[in-house]
Design goal:
The complex is a heterodimer. By secondary structure, chain A is mainly alpha-helical. Chain A has two domains: 80 residues, Up-down Bundle (Four Helix Bundle (Hemerythrin (Met), subunit A)), CATH 1.20.120.1200; 42 residues, no CATH class. Chain B is built from 17 helices and four strands. The two termini of chain B are 33 Å apart. In chain B, 61% of the residues lie in helices and 3% in strands. By secondary structure, chain B is mainly α. In chain B, a hairpin with a 2-residue loop joins strand 1 and strand 2. In chain B, the strands form two sheets. Chain B has a two-stranded antiparallel sheet. A two-stranded antiparallel sheet of chain B has the order 3-4. The chains are: A mainly alpha, B mainly alpha. Chains A and B meet through helix 2 and helix 3 of A and helix 5, helix 6 and helix 7 of B.
Chain lengths: 168, 482
């Protein structure tokens, strides 16, 4: 029982708890704030995986920017409490099926993992997960996927502007 | 004459207090390194830097802000609270006892929670507003790392690999406190304040990040110790902002240091404007807007309101600290840096060098705090659309241009001299624009002298863009006191 395992247990438990709150909270603001804390505890798990750059990016981009946007929209529309119960529509059934499918895939992958994984804390190099290493990998080995993703985001942004332009 | 003397005595007292604080921080750091364990000085740094220096300056700022606003508005400022101690002759002591009365009032006021409020979120609001601003200072080095009692002592709490990204990430979390406070009070004015705060934060977050990319490019690092750099000696030149772009030969080094302000003046203006907007102080005080909506903290009383207020002042201190580290050379002296560091007595007693340079750091911080007070009490509040267009249409494109120009010049001349020439030219253009801009006298909108003054400063501070906007834009209500 080392400190890494204890921290992982704490972060995993808190992640699950906040993720559960996201789903079961009635008020959209409570859901959004629970999602923020989910991202935060996920960042803690990233740090345990020696991916501290990913962790700080998670806090910076998801907790710090995207969720602020969510909160802004919720507050602007002044969304009230909503009930999750309702008639089973096609979208709900499809969503449920997709969730079960995803869970099954993850479970299969989890079962195929070796029982005793190599601990990263002993095997990783000192430079693993640093901002310099990540930058090098992104801009050399994974340059094309990186640029493709940024192009995708640009297309989405232009699309959003085109859609919104006709209504203002 | 006695007034000048009082001011001089006060200034020397401040410098001596800061030097004493830094000296004890270094000496205690050395002691705990020796007697406890390696790295224990990081723990005492939390105490000295964050709890003592930042907190004391933020507390004194509550008074300095009122006194400075009084000075600008030709008033006396608060001077009624006095301590009846023998020897003080019932003096007002520059209003200092008011800090005590403020705290007493906030602690003894009834802590009211509106019946229709969401209790949990209502209580969470002040915590979420205060905690991130308080944690921000952890990565800012307040002094060089020197040998004390044979042990290495850093004057910083943490030096993570992602350095400046930590500041950006944690600073962006502070808005949750504001937004939640506005929403949870179940008050329409509070909600308006919260929504304004979030929209403002979104508009300036991108510009804030982009404005720092130029600094990351020039110093090829995101870490504070690397950006601030080390002091050189006879054999090697310094690194980061501790080196000189041009310097005279000889024992006493004199020259142009590679400070961010000289090589990234545009980046500095963008960063300062964007982070000023994130502190939610006038002219960006729309989330508060006392004269129209009172703000997100309208339902808060007692110390919960006090937390919102003090977190604003902590933000001011942290912003000054981060700006000093990025753009004003951190703890480095503008000249004589290498001469001082290589004196035999400084080599022998590392804590002495640390104390002097640490005091230099806090003096720079005080200067930048003063600049922030000056801006806060000079500009009237912007209109909402002006805030949005300033963030998206002026700061964001300028930030992108700054990145491209900086990148090209760093690639062309890695010694950064080309960048410094451009930077000094930019500063010169700004000075010329500021001094030669004609002040529009009066006008159809009943603009008084203060408005013309603002136009001049709009140029001086680059991105404020006051000159692009209609003159009646300044018609907003005057900024009010707390």
């Amino acid at each position: 029982m080392n400190i890494e395992l204890i921290l992982f247990g704490a972060f995993a438990l808190l992640t699950l708890l906040s993720a559960g709150t996201v789903i079961f909270a009635r008020s959209p603001i409570n859901s959004a704030m629970a999602l923020v804390s989910t991202f935060f505890f996920m960042a803690g798990i990233y740090v345990l995986l020696w991916a501290h750059t990913v962790a700080v990016m998670q806090v910076l981009v998801y907790a710090g920017a995207i969720m602020v946007l969510f909160l802004f929209v919720i507050m602007l529309l002044n969304l009230g409490e909503s009930s999750t119960r309702g008639k089973p529509t096609v979208a709900r059934v499809a969503g449920g099926a997709a969730t079960v499918g995803l869970f099954a895939v993850l479970a299969i992958i989890l079962l195929k993992l070796p029982a005793e994984p190599a601990t990263l804390s002993t095997g990783a190099q000192a430079s693993f997960g640093t901002i310099a290493t990540m930058g090098q990998v992104i801009f050399t080995q994974w340059l094309f996927p990186f640029e493709a993703v940024s192009l995708l985001l640009l297309v989405a942004m232009v699309g959003a502007v085109v859609v919104a332009k006709s209504r203002i | 004459m006695s007034r000048v003397l009082t001011i001089l005595v006060a200034m020397f007292t401040i410098v001596f207090l800061m030097a004493g604080g830094m000296a004890s921080a270094y000496l205690v750091g050395g002691l705990v390194e020796e007697h406890w364990f390696t790295g224990a000085s990081r723990l005492t740094n939390v105490l000295f830097l964050v709890l003592i220096f930042v907190m004391v300056i933020a507390t004194l700022l509550t008074m300095a802000e009122r006194k400075w606003s009084a000075f600008i508005q030709d008033r006396m400022g608060p001077n009624r609270a006095r301590i009846a101690l023998p020897g003080l002759k019932n003096r007002s002591l520059g209003g200092l006892p008011h800090i005590l009365t403020d705290v007493l009032k906030m602690l003894t006021k009834e802590d009211l929670i509106p019946a229709a409020a969401n209790r949990f979120m209502f209580n969470l609001g002040p915590i979420l507003a205060f905690a991130p601003t308080f944690a921000l200072f952890a990565v800012v080095p307040a002094g060089p790392s020197v040998q004390v009692f044979g042990r290495n002592v850093d004057m910083v709490v943490a030096t993570p690999d992602f350095g400046a990204l930590y500041v950006l990430a944690i600073a962006s979390l502070a808005v949750y406190g504001t937004a939640l406070a506005g929403w949870a009070s179940n008050n329409k004015f509070g909600l308006l304040g919260g929504v304004r705060a979030t929209s403002q934060m979104i508009a300036y977050e991108v510009a804030l990040g982009l404005s720092l990319v130029g600094i990351f490019l020039t110093f090829s690092s995101v870490q504070f110790p690397a950006i601030i750099g080390d002091i050189g000696n006879a054999l090697t030149g310094g690194t980061g902002q501790g080196r000189y772009l041009w310097r005279t030969d000889g024992a006493f080094d004199l020259g142009l240091p590679a400070w961010g302000i000289f090589i990234q003046p545009l980046g500095f203006l963008l960063f300062f404007a964007a982070s000023f907007a994130e502190t939610k102080r006038a002219p960006f005080d729309l989330p508060e807007g006392e004269s129209e909506i009172i703000g997100y903290f309208v339902e808060y009383s007692g110390m919960k309101f006090g937390l919102f207020m003090i977190s604003e002042f902590v933000e001011v201190v942290v912003l000054a600290g981060v700006t000093t580290a990025f753009f004003f050379g951190g703890y480095h002296l503008p000249f004589g840096n290498e001469w001082l560091a290589n004196l035999p007595i400084m080599q022998e007693h590392g804590w002495l060098l640390g104390t002097i340079l640490g005091t230099v750091f806090w003096l720079k911080v005080l200067f930048l705090i003063w600049v922030q007070l000056l801006i806060r009490w000079t500009f009237p509040r912007f209109r909402y659309d002006q805030i949005q267009s300033l963030g998206w249409k002026i700061l964001l494109p300028l930030g992108l241009v700054n990145i491209f120009v900086t990148g090209a010049l760093v690639l062309w001349d890695p010694s950064l001299r080309a960048l410094a020439v451009l930077g000094i030219a930019e500063i010169g253009i700004l000075v010329v624009l500021t001094t030669t801009t004609k002040v529009p006298a009066g006008g159809a909108h009943g603009a008084h002298a203060g408005h013309g003054h603002d136009h001049g400063h709009g140029h001086a501070h680059g991105g404020h863009g006051a000159h692009d906007l209609p003159a009646h834009a300044h018609g907003a209500a005057p900024a009010s006191t707390h």
